[in-house]
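thoughts on these tokens:
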Amino acid sequence: MDSVLMPERIDYAGKLIEIIRGRWKAKSGRKANFSDILNDILLDPREKDLIAEQILAILFSTKFVSLFTESEIGSNKGFFSDASARLSFKFLPPVDEPGELRTHFDQLFCDKKDYHWVQAIPDEKWSESLQNLFREISPTVGKYIRKEVLNSILILAQRAATLGVDPEVVSKIPKADDLDSPFLGLNREVMLYVENTLNSTDYTETDQDNDYKHILVMISQCKRQVSYIYKHKDVFGISLQLTYLVRQLEQYLRRLAQLLEALQTTDIERKWLTIVTLLKEFVYAENTRYSLRKHFSTNLQLLAFKVIENTSKTGEHYIASDKSAYWKLFTRALGGGVIVSFLCADKTRLYFQHLPIFWEAFFYSVNYSVGFMLIHILGFTLATKQPAMTASTIAANLSNNGENPDWLNSTTALLIRLIRSQFISLVGNAIIAFPVAYGLDWLYYKYLGHHIADPAKAIRLITELNLWESLALPHAALAGFYLMVSGLISGYYENKWIYNKYTLRVRSHRKLIRLFGQKKLDRIAGYFERNFGGLAGNLFLGIFLGSTSAIGFTFGLPLDIRHVTFASGNFGLAVAGLDNYVSTDLWINSIIGIAGIGIMNVLVSFGLSIAFALKSRNARMSEVKSLIGNLSWQFFHHGLAFFFPVKNVVETQEEMQEA
């Protein structure tokens, strides 16, 4: 096999890749009949031998470690550092290392869309073609490949052990830094396995197989430790740094198991299928190595996972499961609508102060924030905030469908309850805001002699509700976006409170103990543990809503917000300000406008929130399509259940299963 050492030769492997790439582009990316392309090309035995010889020559003269231990394994540089590095490499690529297999791999699969056709060929076809291509491998080359794979296995185990005893991870896993830590145990077992395989003459295949099985057990124990972090994240929280570490740790363990299986399994088909899986992963990873889109997508998923998880348990309180809870939501919505009516009156009063733009935005924000926080403290609801808090509850059902075989019906039932809960909350907010705002203006006029809104302002308030003559719908969409962001902020700060153990820190604070006493301080700490995220989300929502028009004015942009409850309250102020001289057409247009604003608030808030939630949990599109189909069928056959808590087939089945 001396010929494999010859570096200078025609690039047969590169030509093969070019042919396949060309045929794929000629088919415009269609997968039909494309799976047979390898067999069609590799018909000439002499050409096939030359391709195999060239690839083996590359393998024999390069190092595998960089490709095997870094490709498709997340970086720990940080978001901005990694993004800037990727951007710089796009314009000025790094120097290629000729002694690295990764360099030759990049040269073969040089087109950034090669992973499309590589993935389009089924695993079985790849396995069959590769077995046909590499029928004979000389002992010298085989021994070298085995040594490089073992080196990669050793490095992966060491890196997994390093992450496994990182302080961020250790603080969340019991006994993770002890000598019996599975991560340290895995490293020890892999070191013995590699050492014996390379150097021990009396290391039999039976001994090797036993050690391999023991390593798999250790990998399984490590994975259980990682699962422990995920399952208890609601108890001790999770930081973005910890999320990075845990995901990277998972990738190291997975790659380690793949290389061990490719090296150790005696099942030829299974061995080659594992190699094919690695090939596809490597091609995708190297093609997207400097992709900013992939970087942002991956980090968005990690960020969503971090901030959205804690809203799922909070979201359950916004979903009515029976008639009693349904009407309780209605009552809470009435309370929220009353407070919003006062906010509408106060904002209109502030408008007539003609403050400088900064101070106007500041006091608008204070008005909104204090009102929203008061709604939260009193246990009332602002209807359109519900979707942001409940989206991750829906996503949790989708991501747990492996544990729940009837996930489709249970998630459909949950969505039906959410929709009718949202409906009754919207009704409660809207129907009370109008009369209360109207009554406030009546009292204001009785004691001060003038309306809260003069006729010019009243006409403007009504015009802003007209869907055809104003930007009501875009402004409602912007408000829906803010509602979604406030939900994420709630999850972020709730997680932050738990992760940083603020409850314990407050309870043990000596000065606070002397000031409040231990029992009272315990109650304060417990209250903030339950409500800190909600208060923070409402604070920021008020700032967003109060400052948007000022920002739009500053930059000359038509920015503003429309919220259904405020729209109803403003309409009440406007009707009172015009002394009830409002035409029928204006009544109809305003009611349609209020309804349209509410629908847009909910659609945008819920749509964006559930997109984030699904992103964080890697829910499949097929699941979403099945859910939409089942939900549509239920709407056409049991439409009343979407608005009122009547029994329907899905919910009845779910109750029977729970019983």
Remarks:
- Residues 1-9, 655-659 have pLDDT under 50 and may be disordered.
- Residues 308-658 form one domain.
- The longest helix spans residues 407-448.
- The chain has 30 helices and no strands.
